[in-house]
Each structure stands twice: as C-alpha cells, then as structure tokens.
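Re: [ENG-882] Designed sequences occasionally contain unexpected residues at chain ends

Forwarding the minimal case from QA. Structure tokens:
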C-alpha cells in the first residue's frame, strides 16, 4: 500500500457537495483505504495499491466531477515527498502566524526552471524557492499590509491553473495524518 495526500483545488466548504463526508465517500467508493480528511479545504489522505500518481489524480478528478460536480484539480503528493519537504525545513527561522503565512503551492509539472514572476504589486509576497521533490513553490506572504495580494493570479498566469496552495501548517498536518 502507498500513502498519499490529495490536495483538491476549488473546494468551498459552504457547498454541500464539497463537505468532508462527501469527499471521503468518493475516495472510499474508488476503493482507497484509510481515507481521512483534514480541515475543510479539500485535503484528503488515503492509501492505495496503485503507485501511478497521474492515473490516481485523473481517476479521482473524474469521480469528483461525476459524483459531486467538482470541476477543480486534484494534485497528489506521496508521504515520502511530504516527509522530505518537511524534513528540509524550508521556512527555517520563520513562523506561520496571522502576520506571516508560509505557503506551499503545488504544481502539476515541474518547470525546467523557476520562472521569473512579475512583481507582486502589493510587495507582500517573497518566493523562497522551488522544491523539485515536492514539485512546489515555497513562499512567504506578509499579511501586515491591508492590501490583498494577487500572487495566486500571478502564479496562475505564469505557470498555469493546474496548481493549488496550502499553508505549510496544513502540509505538516497532512503528513502527521499519513504517519499516524
């Protein structure tokens, strides 16, 4: 059995079809084991015999769309990928808090090199690096500025919409669930 975390794009907890129990039901209906959800923002940990991540992502997304009408994307990372990311201490010396968000933006495919992102017009985002093993952009968002950052739109325009962002705390919680 292989352990995975699925990070679903476009989940709105206020939508009854996107609630955790329905998400778990889709994953269990696909025959996955030890299915568990985390928070209410589209984070599902599970075990599967299949080790082909792209096939799993496609199968899950098709089922979510067919059964619940969820059109977003499904990005999967293995327990080992998340463990390596957490072990690398990518945000050393920084603390996630109301003023500073430590974020992980998972992308479908690794770019050959991290593109130059256009300047964030609010000056509130600092891209630290691209993690090739987790296939993720690691960034710090300064929330002390009342302006709303448009960084996610910048990432989408630069890399494409096949991305999803989580806080580093959420990634750590997903790993903890995978390890329990």
């Amino acid at each position: 059995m292989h352990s995975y975390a699925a990070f679903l794009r476009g989940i709105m907890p206020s939508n009854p079809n996107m609630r955790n129990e329905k998400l778990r039901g889709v994953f269990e209906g696909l025959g996955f084991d030890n299915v568990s959800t985390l928070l209410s923002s589209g984070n599902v940990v599970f075990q599967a015999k299949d080790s082909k991540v792209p096939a799993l992502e496609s199968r899950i997304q098709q089922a979510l769309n067919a059964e619940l009408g969820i059109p977003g994307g499904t990005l999967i990372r293995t327990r080992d990928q998340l463990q390596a990311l957490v072990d690398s201490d990518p945000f050393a010396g920084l603390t996630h808090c109301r003023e500073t968000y430590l974020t992980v933006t998972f992308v479908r495919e690794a770019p050959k090199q991290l593109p130059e992102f256009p300047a964030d017009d609010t000056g509130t985002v600092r891209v630290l690096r691209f993690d090739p093993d987790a296939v993720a952009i690691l960034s710090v968002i300064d929330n002390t500025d009342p302006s709303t950052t448009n960084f996610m739109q910048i990432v989408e325009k630069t890399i494409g919409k096949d991305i999803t962002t989580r806080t580093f705390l959420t990634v750590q919680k997903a790993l903890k669930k995978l390890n329990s």
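QA comment: On inspection the terminal residues look reasonable. The chain is about 30% helix and 30% strand. Proposing we downgrade this to a documentation issue.
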